[in-house]
Amino acid sequence: MRLRTVLFDLDGTLIDSGAIILASMRHAAETVLERSIPDEDLMAAVGGPGLVAQMRALDPERVDELVRVYREHNEPLHAELQACDGILDVLPELRRLGATLGIVTAKRLATVRLAFEVIAGLEEFFDTVVGSDETERHKPQPDPILLALDRLGADPATAAYVGDSPFDVQAAKAAGVHAVAVTWGRIHDEERLAQEEPDALVHTAEELLAAL
Q1: Does residue 150 carry a catalytic annotation?
Q2: CATH 1.10.287 fits 18-80, yes or no
Q3: Is the overall model pTM greater than 0.90, yes or no?
């Protein structure tokens, strides 16, 4: 294994949350704005600068209400959350191979905690978690990745960031780490990910080991 530090996005990479994100985006738009918005528009910014920015793109005048309604709908849905297929087999193998693992996510730490409470054993693999409430700038800026690397005392040259969005690839490149894009999250399509020219594009969790 060439890379000693592996950082992961959360939504669509570790946890299979695309469906509940979309459901809550639809609910917020229909409840607050009283209109239907195409799914591709609702999901376009997911995984990037965070929920506030996503809602600002829908209506800059009603951001606070959109965020509130989204969270009220979204948080209870975490009770049915599952890990992405195969990821709970890959994480212990990475640790066995000597990798240090972390999470860098656009979610708040409080929402990350919901996922940890539902998916038994997930938290134990990670030495640090960086949430959206810990940096002023968010993906696609490199700041969250750089904060995780600093906490771990890791060298960007021997680190990777694994994510399912174009913002993840952009942030990884900006931070100087190996950019690994995964397609299993189904939040952003493979063609869109490929446009960002990641260092590796993988389709299953099992393939991830070879990419690192």
Answers
A1: no
A2: no
A3: yes
